[in-house]
């Protein structure tokens, strides 16, 4: 092993020690770079269906069986509890971009579970929920865009990060516990840059977590006003 490689490995061990972000167990002997140990990875139950966007009922065969007039379906790979909560926390708030590795594995399994056919996803476009430019500059990346690229690659779909902008610098939704506060916080936060391109399109709107739904609801409101046809909000985890 060269001196440079040894130094790089030592630096990574210092900055990102091989300790599970959930249970704090040392898993340096496990041949992985996932932030979660194998025991915690096994605790993540991966869903097998889409959900109703309004009541979150499971939708067998990915077909609406309730609230047929609600403007979108919800796709969620898993539920927002430990250990996935701790993994996403590192991803978003400690800016650990490498958390996308286990997240990618979870998403791939979920997409496989959905058994989406090429006909079902034909003419769909992946659209990440944008961050405000100041927050993205501070974080170094948009986690929704990274997740969107994983989904787009797996489903062989185009991804457009330029059609929806966040024009209002909002407070962090996680800091607001009241649903009305969250709704007001993201009101008029987005802008569709090219409504003609959105018109008649089927959209996979991607974000990391679905909690109150305020952010996704506001983005979808604009997409629908711009003429979007079908929309699936796709996230790594949902809170309820």
Neighbour order of strands in the largest sheet: 2-1-3-8-7-4
CATH topology: Rossmann fold
The number of distinct helices, counting runs of at least 4 residues, comes to 10
Q: Name the CATH class.
A: Alpha Beta
Helix percent reads: 25-40%
The rough form would be described as globular
Rg value: 19 Å
Q: Kindly, what is the distance between the CA atoms of the first and last residues, rounded to a whole number of angstroms?
A: 48 Å
Total number of beta strands: 8
> In sequence order, what are the helices and strands, one letter per element?
HHEEEHHHEHHEHEHEHE
The averaged pLDDT comes out at: 89
Question: How large a portion of the residues is in β-strands, by DSSP E?
Answer: 15-25%
Whole-number total of structural domains? 1
The CATH architecture can be given as 3-Layer(aba) Sandwich
Quick overview:
This protein has helices at about 5-15, 40, 85-95, 100-115, 120, 135-140, 145-155, 180-185, 195-200, 215-225, and strands at about 50, 60, 75-80, 125-130, 165, 190, 200-210, 230-240. It is an alpha/beta fold.
Characterization of the model:
With 240 residues, the chain is α/β, with parallel strands linked by helices. It has a single domain, classed as Rossmann fold. 38% of the residues lie in helices and 17% in strands. It has ten helices and eight strands. The chain has helices at 3-15, 38-42, 84-93, 100-114, 118-121, 133-139, 143-155, 179-186, 195-198, 214-225, and strands at 50-52, 58-59, 73-79, 124-128, 164-166, 190-192, 202-210, 231-238. The longest helix is centred in the middle third of the chain and has 15 residues, at 100-114. 31% of the residues are buried.
